[in-house]
Amino acid sequence: NILVTDDLCCCLADFGLSLFAESQILNSSSRMSKGSIRWLAPEYIDPDVVIDQAYITARDIYAYGCTVVEIYTGRPPFSDIKNEASIILAVIAGKRPLRPQHLLQDGLWSLVTTCLTASPSERPNA
Q1: What is the DSSP code (8-state) at residue 35?
Q2: What is the pLDDT of residue 66?
Q3: pLDDT per position as a tens digit, 31-42
Q4: Are strands 10-12 and 2-4 parallel, antiparallel or unpaired?
Q5: Which of 61, 63, 88, 116 could be disulfide-bonded to 39 (CB atoms 3.0-4.6 Å)?
Q6: Which contacts qualify for 104-110: CB closer than 8 Å, 24 or more apart?
Q7: 34: which DSSP letter?
Q8: Cα gap 97→4, rounded to integer Å
Q9: Cβ atoms 126, 75 nearer than 8 A
Q10: Backbone angles phi, psi at 58, to 5 degrees
Q11: What is the pLDDT of residues 58-86, one digit of tens each?
Q12: Where is the Protein kinase domain (predicted)?
């Protein structure tokens, strides 16, 4: 979700996921049921990954990268994949949304790919 404030600042939000992130209990069986799979960072999809609380906001940076792709394509990330199970497998395997060739400049695409990196510690800070 993109929320726009009165002074026209845009904020990414997914209230179900933000409530989940504030929880002290992060068990792998409940991770994927929170948030929107197409925008969910790999560390919240892969049950073998331990989530480092120091990088908890990195999931929002990943979602931002997915949102930029959606804005430029007019379609949600992974729109070529029809079911959530296949999206989960693709993200765990390292697949990321495809570059919209005719719409994104190289500099912006470089930012998007950095936002979509698998390692939360390598994503930009907000």
Answers
A1: S
A2: 94
A3: 444 458 999 999
A4: antiparallel
A5: 63
A6: 104/72, 108/68
A7: S
A8: 25
A9: no
A10: -60, -25
A11: 998 999 999 999 988 999 999 999 999 99
A12: 1-126
Q: Which residue has the tokens 């998007």?
A: 112
CA separation for the pair 65, 68 (Å, rounded) = 5
**Quick one: which of 69, 68, 124 has its CA closest to 97?**
69
- Delineate the domains of the chain, giving CATH numbers in brackets: 2-122 (1.10.510.10)
Could you tell me the sign of the dihedral formed by the alpha carbons of 106, 2, 98, 30, in that order? positive
In the predicted structure, residue 113 carries a pLDDT above the cut 90: yes
- Dihedral through CA 86, CA 88, CA 93, CA 97, nearest 10? 80
